[in-house]
Write a structure and sequence with these properties.
heterodimer; A: mainly alpha; MetI-like fold; B: MetI-like fold; 12 helices
Chain lengths: 318, 274
């Protein structure tokens, strides 16, 4: 188990290097002089020169790349042009907000997605199956920021159940956190619930056709036990891998959803950085999210092996 | 073709998508109002028989703006699909057919795919500046590795089949083997993938526009319409609701078509209707 985890981490290292290289090169995609663009229209020559110096653009390419990695190894992602604060510090300050909302959303996704998928598979071709399939397909087809806006109109403006935006930390007030985090978490979850429902349904249908399920039924086990114990265990295996995709969708969705609900998390930080053309923040934010996802996926891989010993025993372990 | 026409959800998807595409294409013939014509005394008219989708903050007809907006959103989606078809196939075929290139190309695609799709598109579009063509480039860069990977997987399977061996034995060149014998047999997964790329591209373009990274605001794409309507969501919710429904219809139609293509063309991937 430990060796498997270590091997996965070693495999992730070159990918991490490439990811950081891509986020470094993003700056060179800017047409013309990045310093001029970052300083904004009408900036004086002195300001542009200062911005160029701050971004390290007045040095040769190789030196810039070397400095980027030297700083990265010290956890330094550069300094935000707008906030005047180190990028890493700004991200870490806001990370708990995004983490709590993402967790809330993930819990909603797993509970509702699994329940709907299992219900649809168990009642295959019934009205339950039809409704679940249609709703799940709608879930993956609706733009989530649009849904967020529609939710604000219905639940905040019309019904007055939730505030239109803002955020209260769970450590300050748990009730306040639920009030402010529920709508963003639901808006983020809807797409993933659709995704998870479709996959759970398909996997469960597959598992329910296998011989050992027939055997379980033949020896007289109740349907609840057959589905809940025997079938669910094998349904979980492909689902664990989907969690990686779900996390990826969650983190990218947070940019728009946090912007819509004015939640002060990493997503909104990135959204504002885009509007302000704060390139070090965009670079650092992207790198942070991609690296976090990569490490989470390594974790999921290890978890996958724990669920399914075939992965751990076979495959490409050294 | 006939199994596709008998596939219920494919046909529903086709109808949904064709309806949206026809309205967008025929916009000048369907709506007589100019999407940019302002009439301040007609501001914020709710949907009525005179203005089917109401009017916006400057008195412009939302029907005209949504119909014309569809042209840009669909054109961007189509351009992303075209770039995916060209470069995804090229890179996928190279990686699948030339083992020496496989490792490098796939590691690069791994790195690009490690970023969440929308987030990488946001990063690229933010660097390139907000125009419709940068949205296309950004979305193409994001989805090409995914298409290439799917094509590579099929090329790896097809290149080991007997008829490819036979073609090689009678002296066909590599280019002929790939273009005439391998690629035609990899079309099914490609078509399935491209229909989903179209759907993702329309959705992601809306996200980019909403964040101010798509087409400039003078040209109404659906994402921009939603973003403009956001400021008036209390007094005029139709400004936001209508373009959102247009996006949902398009993406739902494309997803249903993608499911249908997969069921009929590539039964191995058939997971939905086991």
């Amino acid at each position: 188990m430990g060796r498997h985890a270590l091997w996965r981490l070693i495999q992730a290292a070159p990918l991490l290097l490439l990811i950081s290289l891509i986020s470094f090169l993003l700056l060179y995609l800017i047409p013309g002089d990045p310093a001029l663009v970052a300083a904004g229209p009408g900036a004086s020559a002195d300001v542009v020169a200062q911005v160029r110096h701050n971004m390290g653009l007045d040095r040769p390419f190789a030196v810039q790349l070397g400095l980027f990695y030297a700083r990265l190894l010290h956890g330094d992602l550069g300094r935000s042009l707008v906030l005047g604060q180190p990028v890493a510090e700004a991200i870490l300050q806001r990370a708990p907000v995004t983490l709590w909302i993402s967790l809330y959303s993930l819990v909603l996704t797993i509970i509702l997605g699994l329940a709907a998928g299992i219900a649809a598979a168990v009642r295959h071709n019934s009205w339950v199956d039809q409704i679940v399939s249609v709703v799940a397909l709608l879930g993956v087809s609706l733009p989530n920021f649009w849904l967020a806006l529609v939710m604000i109109v219905i639940f905040s403006v019309q019904l007055g159940w939730f505030p239109t935006g803002g955020y209260v930390a769970p450590t300050t007030s748990l009730a306040g956190w639920f009030a402010t985090a529920t709508m963003p978490a639901v808006a983020l979850a809807l797409l993933q619930i659709g995704l998870l429902t479709r996959i759970t349904r398909a996997t469960m249908l597959d598992v329910l056709r296998q011989d050992y399920i027939r055997t379980a039924r033949a020896k007289g086990l109740g349907e609840a036990l057959v589905v809940g114990r025997h079938a669910l265990a094998n349904t979980m295996i492909p689902i664990v891998t989907v969690v990686g995709i779900i996390l990826s969708v969650l983190l990218s969705g947070s940019v728009v959803i946090e912007t819509v609900f004015a939640v002060p998390g990493v997503g909104a930080l990135l959204g504002n950085a885009i509007l302000a053309r704060d390139y070090p923040m965009i670079q650092g934010g992207l790198l942070f999210v991609a690296a976090t996802l990569l490490l989470l996926n390594v974790g999921i891989d290890v978890l996958y092996a724990a669920f399914d010993p075939r992965v751990r025993l076979g495959g490409d372990d050294p | 073709m006939i199994p596709l026409l008998r596939h219920r959800s494919f046909m529903l998807g086709l109808v949904l998508f064709a309806a949206v595409a026809l309205v967008a294409l025929a916009a000048p013939f369907i709506v007589d109002a100019d999407p940019a014509r302002m009439a301040l005394r007609l501001r914020f008219k709710p949907p009525s028989s005179e203005f089917l989708f109401g009017t916006d903050n400057l008195g412009r007809s939302m029907l005209a703006r949504v119909c014309y907006g569809g042209r840009l959103s669909l054109a961007i989606g189509l351009a992303v699909v075209a770039l995916n078809a060209v470069f995804g196939v090229l890179i996928g075929a190279l990686a699948g057919y030339v083992p020496r290139l496989d490792g490098a190309l796939m590691r690069l695609s791994d790195a690009l795919m490690a970023f969440p799709a929308v987030l990488l598109a946001i990063g690229i579009a933010a660097a390139l500046g907000p125009t419709a063509s940068t949205a296309v480039i950004a979305l193409a860069i994001v989805y090409i590795p995914r298409t290439a990977r799917i094509l590579r997987a099929s090329v790896l399977v097809v290149r080991r089949l007997d008829f490819v061996e036979a073609a090689r034995a009678i002296g066909c060149g590599h280019l002929r083997i790939v273009a005439r014998h391998i690629l035609p047999n990899c079309l099914a997964p490609l078509i399935v993938q491209l229909s989903f790329v179209f759907a993702y591209a329309v959705l992601s373009e809306a996200v980019l526009s909403f964040l101010g990274l798509g087409a400039p605001p003078s040209v109404p794409s659906w994402g921009i319409l939603i973003s403009e309507g956001r400021g008036y969501i209390r007094e005029a919710p139709w400004l936001t609701v209508v373009p959102g429904i247009a996006i949902a219809m398009t993406v739902l139609g494309l997803n249903l078509m993608g499911d249908g293509f997969r069921d009929v063309l590539d039964p191995r991937l058939r997971v939905e209707q086991i």
